[in-house]
Design a protein that fits this description.
18% helix, Pseudouridine synthase, pseudouridine synthase activity, PsdUridine_synth_RsuA/RluA, PsdUridine_synth_RluC/D, EC 5.4.99.-, 6 helices, Structural Genomics Hypothetical 15.5 Kd Protein In mrcA-pckA Intergenic Region, Chain A, alpha+beta
Length: 298
């Protein structure tokens, strides 16, 4: 069980229960907390795993009442720190979830060195005294708004990535599409392929990765429909490709919609809901971000 008095963003302290005793320290860290062999090696070199207040080799047997302390502190990213007005939707010891505004790049690139969300999170971590790297769990296109998850330590990042691989994370979006969608709900299961020299534009092609998107109609207007979309796989541009493939491209999406689309300054796509298990406490968490004003106006 977790010791409630000895928890922080960089430290997990666990008291061994009778059902957990008998195995090695390494097996416990790998099986109970999913710590990878690579991370275990790094932590071993830095002596960041303690048992009962002292360094213990990984082959040490653990018994009921032993106190195991994992310290994940590390050197932070070298990205520039830039103050930014972050809209925090949820935060705990392991996670920071931000409601991203449209038009903001997530990671620094050749054309964006100091105006990305990463720069803002580096600044935020410094202000709260957190000496850790910025690790994004999910991704959003520059012009997509909504929930972005940042893990505050490598344990939380590994755990949430594993949850995604095992389909334990529910990701839902709101989007306005062109035309009236006839069916109240539906499922799109088409492979998505990234051709060479396509400029990043994905297509439906049998050579692509299996992809699955569900949708439900929330509102219909004369020439557009508001959908609640759920991702069952996580391919790049998946929602944009799939909805375009059924004749209902996202409003404002110049890459997968009508060429020269100017009715909306960005793709009308918003990541509004995430549901997952909190990595440390294993409690189910649901976080929502309301539809932004520009999409409400549609």
């Amino acid at each position: 069980m977790l010791d409630p008095k000895k928890q922080s963003a960089t430290t997990i302290t666990h008291i061994v229960e009778i059902s957990e005793e008998g195995g090695t320290l390494k097996d416990f860290l790998r099986d109970r907390y999913g710590i990878s062999s690579r991370l275990l090696s790094k932590m071993k070199k830095k002596r960041q795993i303690l048992m009962n207040g002292e360094y213990a080799p990984y082959h040490t047997r653990i018994y009921r009442g032993d106190q195991i302390e994992m310290n994940f502190e590390e050197d932070p990213n070298s990205y520039p720190s830039v103050p930014m007005n972050l809209e925090i939707a949820y935060e705990d010891l392991d996670l920071l979830i931000i409601n991203k505004k449209p038009g903001i790049v997530t990671h620094p690139t050749q054309g964006h060195h100091k105006d990305t969300l990463t720069n803002g999170v580096v600044d935020y971590f410094q202000r709260i005294g957190l000496n850790m790297k910025v690790r994004f769990v999910n991704r959003l296109d520059m012009n997509t708004s909504g929930l972005l998850v940042i893990a505050k330590n490598p344990f939380a990042h590994f755990d949430l990535m594993k949850q995604m691989q095992e389909d334990q994370v529910t990701k839902s979006y709101l989007t306005w599409v062109h035309g009236k969608v006839k069916e109240d709900q539906g499922m799109i299961e088409e492979p998505i392929y990234n051709p060479e020299d396509s400029g990043g534009r994905r297509i439906i092609d049998s050579r692509g990765q299996i992809s699955k998107t569900g949708y439900r109609v929330l509102r219909r207007k004369e020439n557009r429909t508001l959908l609640n979309v759920r991702l069952y796989t996580g391919r790049t541009h998946q929602i944009r490709v799939h909805l375009g493939s059924i004749g209902h491209p996202i409003i404002g999406d110049t890459l997968y919609g009508d060429e020269g689309e100017e009715s909306f300054p960005r793709q009308a796509l918003h990541a509004f809901s995430l549901e997952f298990f909190q990595p440390r406490y294993r409690k189910k968490i649901q976080v929502e971000a309301p539809m932004p004003k520009d999409m409400e106006a549609l």
